[in-house]
Every structure is written in structure tokens, then in C-alpha cells.
Design brief:
Layout lengths: L1 E6 L7 E8 L3 H21 L2 E9 L3 H13 L7 E4 L3 H10 L4 E4 L2 H12 L20 H32 L4 H15 L3 H10 L33 H16 L3 E8 L4 E8 L3 H8 L7 H8 L3 E3 L10 H9 L4 E8 L5 E9 L8 H38 L4
């Protein structure tokens, strides 16, 4: 059996993670080959890099080898299939067969390091090795995006595991696969990102009856200035977060920026959307190195933080300063998104290429209003759409089996 999930972000920035489980023998090889081929075609259509996690495959070195050989033979010119965490017998068979179109790594972390190493060598390549010379090869920008998406996946994976374990214990599920399928179904039905749903499962108080949140009433959508433009639907999280960034960029007349929200399960800022930022800087963000940044300062202080000169500002760490200057950012402004209780639930950050840039009083006021709108929407979304998804998950797992 193969389960698929898109890893973090838009299709152009992500990977399709294929989790394979069960026993594979000669009898089942053909069926598995067809299923794998369908998933790979799905990845190709969406522009995703396929990553096959084989940690839970029990048997079948020869069967796996034959299946991979038949499947990858038809993928000439497509991005290589990355295989991680295969068992020793499967790894050895694939390695000895020297299959084309397959890249084998013992762990996901090893794959990330290798992709990062390859991506970092872009400046060393001669002109004749450029993308123009071989248009079927992935660009180095694509490799940077792939590394970033997989790093984000690594940060999210432990929370997914905690949520799976929680559901298995709470509802007596037979295995982690059953828990994951229930989470995925609720995520897709309510259009809630999987990482947001699993975080809520981990931090929400456990249900105490047939209804998880008894007495809950439907909440009206708050009156928001950003909803008055463009016919935006507050139920669609990504659409609203993109709208927040668009508004911030317009207010600050900034060429680049990004939005982060706090993941309550890990108490850390997580990248939600971005525009105009260099891939090397975004990779710094998803590594979770938040100390010594304007984002972290705005979150801790609960007020807007300006860095008019990145090169000389003492509140930035050396790593942050280096990442910003290397990518041409000379000035930064971060705006915290505060809940009604005063806690920081997110940060909006803008970048400028010119040192000495300072926001005006009018811009600071507009940023504060945007942050207030964002907080109101986020609170409504969590208490409406997200709790609806949790309630559905609870009903689905407590429903008597026919």
C-alpha cells in the first residue's frame, strides 16, 4: 500500500512523499508497480519531486528491484526517484542493480545533505553545464526549493507522529497508518493543512464524550478590511495568508516579505507564505534558526521591530546578518500578530534592498491595523474551521464500524 502527501507549500515548491507499507512479494509486485506508476505520474503532472519512503516494507528485494526497474524505465527525462529508509536487503539490491533514475539514501537527513551540497555548487559549474544545455534536468533553484521543502517536512514529521500516537491510544486504532488516513481525510475535507490539523490534535484538550467541543456555537466572520477586496473566502487559509502578505507589501512598498505563524505544538514560528525572498534565505528560515532575528525580537517584545541597516544592527545574530546581506537585504521590518490575550501568534516581515529604510508613522499604523485584522481572522479560523475539522475527526473515529 502507498500513501501520498504533498510536502509543504505550493506544488512548484514541494515534493510528493510516498509512504510504502506492507509486504511485497512476486504476486503483489505487479499491483504495486501500477500503483507506484500512478503516484509518479501524479507527481510529474503537479511538478513535484517524488520521494519514496520504504521504511515499512517488510520483504521482497527481488520483487522491489523488478518493480522499480519497470517503473523507472518509463521515466526517462523525468526527475530521479529518491528512495529513503529502505531496509538493507532492498538497499543492497537497488545498489547492485545500478538502476537509472533512482537515487538511494539510507535516511531522509542524508538525502537532504546531499541535495544541499549539490545545490550549493551552482557557482562552480561551467556554462556548458547550465540549464539551457540540458532543459530536462532540474534547475538549481528547484534543488534549493526541494531541500527547503524536505527540511520543513523533517520539522513537521515528529508532530505528525505524536498526533498518530494520540489517535491510536485514544481511539484504539490498530496502527499508525489508520491514524494517518483519518487525519488526511479530515485535512482534505475541511481544506486544513495537515501540519495545522496534527498540531491542533496534539495541543487540544482531549474529548470527554460524543462531542469534542460541546456547546460550541457558529461564529460570524469578523468584519475585516482585507475581506472587502477581492472576494476572499475566510475559510481558505492559504488564500487569506497570501492576502495578508499582499497587503503588507503594498503598505511598505517592499519588494520582498514573508508571513510566519506560531505552531503551538512546537512553540516555534513556521513559514506560511513568502514573496521575493531568495531561496538561500528561506532555507535559513525553515531550519528554525530564529534567534537573533527581527522576527524573534518582534515576537518576544510584542511590538514592531525595525532594522534600518542590517550590516550594523546589534540585535541581529551573525548568521542572520550573513543570510540577509548575502541575498541583498539591507533593511528589515517585522510586525507581530497579537491575540486578544496579548500573546504573539505570528509575525509579518518585510525586506528592502536599501540600507537606511525606515517605516513612516502612517505605515506603522497601517501595519498595526493589518496585524489586528490578521489576528481576528486567525482566531475565527481556529475556533470555526479548525474545530470543525477536529469535531469531524472525532465523530469519524468514534462511529461504530458496520
Amino acid at each position: 500500500m502507498i500513501e501520498s502527501s504533498v510536502v509543504e507549500g505550493l506544488p512548484a515548491e514541494g515534493a510528493l512523499l510516498l509512504r510504502m507499507s506492507g509486504s511485497l512479494d512476486a504476486d503483489g509486485a505487479q499491483a504495486w508497480s501500477e500503483e507506484l506508476r500512478g503516484h509518479l505520474e501524479q507527481a510529474d503532472r503537479a511538478g513535484l519531486r517524488p520521494v519514496l519512503d520504504m521504511a515499512h516494507v517488510q520483504l521482497g528485494g527481488a520483487a522491489v528491484l523488478r518493480t522499480l526497474s519497470e517503473t523507472t524505465r518509463a521515466r526517462t527525462g523525468r526527475p530521479d526517484l529518491i528512495i529513503v529508509r529502505a531496509r538493507p536487503g532492498v538497499r543492497e539490491a537497488v545498489h547492485l542493480a545500478r538502476l537509472e533514475g533512482v537515487r538511494l539514501y539510507a535516511t531522509l537527513d542524508e538525502a537532504l545533505h546531499e541535495l544541499a551540497r549539490v545545490a550549493s555548487r551552482v557557482e562552480e559549474l561551467p556554462a556548458w553545464r547550465s540549464q539551457m544545455a540540458d532543459p530536462l534536468r532540474p534547475s538549481y533553484e528547484d534543488l534549493y526549493k526541494e531541500v527547503r521543502a524536505l527540511r520543513a517536512r523533517m520539522r513537521t514529521a515528529p508532530v505528525i507522529g505524536m498526533a498518530q500516537g494520540t489517535l491510536m491510544v485514544r481511539y484504539g486504532l490498530p496502527d499508525s497508518g489508520s491514524a494517518f488516513r483519518a487525519l488526511r481525510e479530515a485535512s482534505q475535507r475541511f481544506n486544513v493543512p495537515l501540519r495545522v490539523l496534527v498540531s491542533a490534535v496534539v495541543v487540544a484538550r482531549p474529548p470527554d464524550g460524543d462531542v469534542w467541543f460541546p456547546g460550541r456555537r457558529s461564529l460570524p466572520v469578523p468584519q475585516l478590511r482585507m475581506l472587502a477586496r477581492g472576494g476572499r473566502d475566510p475559510r481558505y487559509r492559504r488564500q487569506m495568508i497570501d492576502a495578508v502578505l499582499h497587503e503588507a507589501l503594498a503598505i511598505g512598498k517592499a519588494p520582498a516579505g514573508y508571513v510566519q505563524f506560531v505552531d503551538p505544538a512546537v512553540n516555534a514560528l513556521m513559514l506560511e507564505t513568502h514573496y521575493g525572498c531568495a531561496e538561500t534565505f528561506l532555507d535559513q528560515l525553515v531550519r528554525g534558526r530564529g534567534d537573533g532575528t527581527a522576527d524573534a525580537a518582534a515576537r518576544v517584545r510584542g511590538r514592531q521591530v525595525s532594522v534600518p541597516d542590517v550590516a550594523t544592527d546589534a540585535q541581529l545574530s551573525d548568521d542572520c546578518r550573513r543570510a540577509l546581506l548575502t541575498t541583498g537585504t539591507q533593511a528589515v521590518h517585522s510586525v507581530p500578530v497579537l491575540s486578544s490575550a496579548g500573546s504573539c501568534t505570528g509575525v509579518i516581515t518585510l525586506h528592502w534592498p536599501d540600507a537606511g529604510h525606515r517605516t513612516t508613522a502612517g505605515q506603522a499604523e497601517a501595519f498595526a491595523l493589518l496585524a489586528s485584522d490578521t489576528s481576528a481572522w486567525l482566531s475565527w479560523y481556529h475556533r470555526s474551521v479548525l474545530l470543525d475539522a477536529l469535531e469531524h475527526l472525532h465523530r469519524a473515529l468514534t462511529r461504530p464500524t458496520p
